[in-house]
Amino acid sequence: MAHTAGCLPLKELTAALQTYNIDFVQLALSKAIQDIDTSTGKLSPGLASYIGEQFDKAGIRIGVLGCYINPVHPDPALRRAEIDRFKEHLRYARQLGAPMVATETGALTTFQETDPSRYEEIGWDTLRATVEELAEEAEKWGVFLGLEGVCTHTLSTPAKMRRMLDEVPSSAIGVVFDPCNWIGHDIQLQDEIVDSAFSLFGDRIIAAHLKDMYEDGSRIRHGSAGRGLFHTAEFLKKLEACKPMIDVSLEDIAGPEVKETIDLLNSLHRR
After folding, report:
1. Which of left, alpha, beta for 12 (phi over 0: left; psi -120 to 50: alpha)?
2. Per-residue H/E/C for 12-73
3. What is the spatial distance between Cα 80 and Cα 85, in angstroms, rounded to a whole number?
């Protein structure tokens, strides 16, 4: 994640990222770039190309453009603003050098207070309508819409991701696969969950996120990859077999940990 280095002026950001010895980042414009206004309506071909050129000069690809909206926001006006922001990112992704724009899918319980018996159905229908609109826009600009599932979100299981792919049959939709997000607290089921995901939509994975899970009293917290409860080595082997050379973003990590963690992951991958 580019903002692992902090929210910095663009040239300072790319210089800091160079020290990590990485070849790509996932870039969330507003989280990472301090000195340029990238709010909705500000992007242009010139601005997007300028940002992309600064990363290119640093030898770093923008593999994923992050625009993490709430696609099931219960306020239609605010949901429309979120969708419009995402569509703007889709339009300018190629100028930035990014092949995809990614988002999560909003809380599973979004409509629970308004309709306790049908809230999941309402959330699903709202998400599907949003995905249909965003997929149509992605198709126009030749980029991918990346969907990331989370166990507490509308796409709360691998089976629901498969259902969404079936109900919105657009080849512009891909999966951003973060296994720890789907595992949640079900540590003992992690291999079953991961294998289910690969079986259901392995061919549709376009990027991956990697972190780890650690016991913290009675809860599970997320942290840097490779040293916790997640079966990292096994996952990396499965991912490489399914999607060779795929981009993997490190999450829940501080800048000073990046190089050491990359070295650890490379050693695990070679085992």
Report:
1. alpha
2. HHHHHHHCCCCCEEEECHHHHECCCCCCCCCCCHHHHHHHHHHHHHCCCEEEEEECCCCCCC
3. 9
Name the token pair of 47. 């601005």
Both ends of the chain: CA-CA distance in Å? 26
User: How far is residue 126 CA from its own chain's centroid?
Assistant: 20
Of the candidates 250, 248, 239, 160, which has an alpha carbon nearest to the alpha carbon of residue 203?
239
| H/E stretch holding 81 | helix 76-96
Cβ proximity of 202 and 237 under 8 Å? no
- Length of the chain in terms of residues written: 271
HSE-up of residue 139 (Cα within 13 Å, Cβ side):
12
Instruction: Give buried/exposed letters for 49-72 (b at 16+ CB in 10 A, else e).
Output: bebbebbeebebbbbbbbbebbbb
Q: How many helices (H) and strands (E) does the chain have?
A: 10, 9
Scanning the structure block, which residue is given the tokens 């607290």? 185
State the burial class of residue 212 (Cβ atoms within 10 Å of its Cβ: 0-12, 13-18, 19+): buried
Q: In this predicted model, what pLDDT tens digit does every residue of 53-94 receive, in sequence order? A: 999 999 999 999 999 999 999 999 999 999 999 999 999 999
Residue pair 64/26 in contact (Cβ under 8 Å)? The answer is yes
Task: For residue 19, give the nearest of 243, 199, 258 by alpha carbon.
Answer: 258
173 DSSP β-pair partners: 145
Token pair in block for residue 257: 């940990």
Confirm whether pTM is higher than 0.90: yes
